[in-house]
Amino acid sequence: MLFNLQNALGLGSLCASAFWLFGGNDQRLTHHPVLPPSYPLAVRNPYLSTWMPSDRIERLPYSNSQFWAGQELGWSVIVRVNGQAFSLMGVPDLETSGILPAKVHRAEFTATHSLFDLTAGPVSLTLDFFSPVSPSNYVRQSLPFSYLTVQVTKSYGDDIQIYSDIDGRWAGREHSAVQVFEQHDDLAIHFLSVEDAVPYTEGNDMALWGQVILASRPENVSSLSALAGERQTVRKYFAEGGDLSSEGSNWSSGGVVALAHDLGTVDSGASVNFAVGYERKEAINYLGEAYTGYYRAEYPTTHEAVSFFLDDYEDAFWESLDFDRELKTSGTAAASSKYADILALSTRQAYGGIDLTIPNESLDTEEVLAFIKELSSDGNVNTIDVIMPAFPIYWVLDPDWIRLLLEPVMKYLDAGRWHLPYTIHDLGSHYPNAIGHDDQKAEPMPIEECGNLLILALAYAQATGDTDWTDQYLDIFQQYADYLVDNSINIANQLSSNDAAGPLPNETNLAIKAAVGIKAFGEMSGIHYYSRVGDEHADLFFNQGLGTDKDQTHFVLEYPDFPDSWKTPYNIYPDLLLGLDTFPTEAHKMSNDFFSSSVRGEYGVPLDNRQDWAKSDWNMWLAGTFDQATRDEFVDDLWAFMTNGKHNWPFSDRYVATSARGREPGKPVLCRARPTVGGHFAILALNGPASITSLSTTHKPGRKLSKMYIVKEHSSEL
Ligand SMILES: *[C@@H]1O[C@H](CO)[C@@H](O)[C@H](O)[C@H]1NC(C)=O
Ligand SMILES: *[C@@H]1O[C@H](CO)[C@@H](O)[C@H](O)[C@H]1NC(C)=O
Ligand SMILES: *[C@@H]1O[C@H](CO)[C@@H](O)[C@H](O)[C@H]1NC(C)=O
Ligand SMILES: *[C@@H]1O[C@H](CO)[C@@H](O)[C@H](O)[C@H]1NC(C)=O
């Protein structure tokens, strides 16, 4: 199969490029649509998350890729043209190898692809790293593999072989990595795993159980060979002979596993696919029971799953092109092309924090549950205030994911294992152990999480029409609504989601969340009392001014006596999204005026008056409540951070926004690769739920609903 990726993506030469430098006629590397901090290569779940820092693209033929947390991973791609080998990626010791560096011309990211154009002697090639995002297709979404397509785009009768290898670092513990090779018909699979692996254990965030895979099949025009062994030796065999089949594998720690396609004479174009992945049959420990990838209901063995993954390439590819295009168009229409760039870079990362699973024993697809890792802060499982900031992307792409992520928590609460009067912060201290907190010692965030849970539950019901699910847990939700009624005016000293900022009593933004949460429960239950109390709280904090300064220029950080303090009051966003009208339009207008320029640093508005750092997810939430001019300022500031070339981590949702406290602005702080970037979809979410239609191919168990929620008109107008 052969596609011209750039034409298919409709990108061609129209895209504005980041920079062109001219040295003689030497055309230098360009980035499209813009320079990101890091390119996602294979990003599908918390343990398959491989990136290429953008400052390594210039020297791509030499550059290692990285795990999201920063560990180096060996992954090379080498092409042999008329007997001369050229590295396209990942050969650090190129000088001594007899392999030449290819020239890198162009780098590009879309929502689902990272593409690099290179030339190797007379031949032009594109590396396409494709990680599908297909949340309505549970099999496709749950497969823990990613595609690397190496496409020859220009060749005039050249003799071509294409090679890729990965090393033992992918297994998480290189010195104890062991290797196995399997062939099933024409499918070749290398496996790497940690010897004597202990299920559910991590080393520096990498999985230490399960198995890394590198697989491929001959395309009808190629023949495939495989080899495992010492790094330089294996590459040398390929460089010299273009074929790996005549050698015997002898794996040892520090080695590589490799696959090579011989395409023979290529007259115009050709392409080959590799699959890279990380499979954990025992994916999640949910309350002592093993949960496994959803796809295993249909493809129980690894080779069946890999084989299907390769079979599915064409469908997945065409879906991804439609999706990438539609997301770009919708993001541009919702705000700007800069906003579309932010969405494109956020998409794989948002789903890359999640596993979609079913029970390992029954493989019953009716029991599907999703698990999300709080990457880079503490590794908690299904943190409510991670699902909360991320939820706009689920709302836009497939709102069922709100239920899929909450259901593991609701089952635990429903089992009566959590005894505190407010809801739990997360379902386990460290991924993938979703074992609850029977010791009642989860991080306490009483108002934060009660408000989040009620708002998320209503968002799900509104977006899907499914009220059976909220009805099923109505008593539990009511308990938390009552907790908010009793505890959200005189608020005890406590943390909010931004725990790095420390605890506060009477934090206005929590009071706002509580008012909206109470009203959400009123809406969900039809019990008018709660709607009235939610409105009364909003009246107290806004109309009566308890949560504002005297002149009503802004919401204060803390009440009653801190008129000069302020915090981004992002908790008001779901009030608008869900059309609850807890707060009046004037409350949005007030924030809009206050945040237009007045407290804006070099890279936007910090979280509150005490901090120099901003949270990108919350800022996009708040931006969704603004008029166009202020909203554009917020979008432009986040885009400026994303593209400033000063950092090379996966998209960070926390960064220094202002130099006011002496730190260099535009640099990330602590947070890498977090799925909370799903919150960047907040502005697009105002178009209504499931507004992206190119992902409509539904392959998931249907829910038989007894009645439907009547979706209200959305009031995204201010
Ligand atoms: C490759 O397979 C396709 C579809 O099966 C076929 O149309 C084409 O002729 C084949 N090409 C070669 C070179 O065998
Ligand atoms: C395997 O080991 C032998 C003996 O050490 C060595 O000569 C050969 O190059 C090795 N092959 C590979 C593929 O590493
Ligand atoms: C998960 O299922 C596989 C068979 O599909 C089985 O070999 C394995 O023991 C199961 N693991 C657990 C923990 O039940
Ligand atoms: C919090 O606000 C309430 C209501 O205004 C007030 O009664 C209480 O004293 C405040 N608590 C603190 C610690 O300031």
UniProtKB/TrEMBL annotation:
<protein>
    <recommendedName>
        <fullName>Glutaminase</fullName>
    </recommendedName>
</protein>
<dbReference type="InterPro" id="IPR052743">
    <property type="entry name" value="Glutaminase_GtaA"/>
</dbReference>
<dbReference type="InterPro" id="IPR008928">
    <property type="entry name" value="6-hairpin_glycosidase_sf"/>
</dbReference>
<feature type="domain" description="Glutaminase A central">
    <location>
        <begin position="336"/>
        <end position="684"/>
    </location>
</feature>
<dbReference type="Pfam" id="PF17168">
    <property type="entry name" value="DUF5127"/>
</dbReference>
<dbReference type="InterPro" id="IPR032514">
    <property type="entry name" value="GtaA_central"/>
</dbReference>
<feature type="signal peptide">
    <location>
        <begin position="1"/>
        <end position="18"/>
    </location>
</feature>
<dbReference type="InterPro" id="IPR033433">
    <property type="entry name" value="GtaA_N"/>
</dbReference>
<feature type="domain" description="Glutaminase A N-terminal">
    <location>
        <begin position="112"/>
        <end position="329"/>
    </location>
</feature>
<dbReference type="GO" id="GO:0005975">
    <property type="term" value="P:carbohydrate metabolic process"/>
</dbReference>
<keyword id="KW-0732">Signal</keyword>
<dbReference type="Pfam" id="PF16335">
    <property type="entry name" value="GtaA_6_Hairpin"/>
</dbReference>
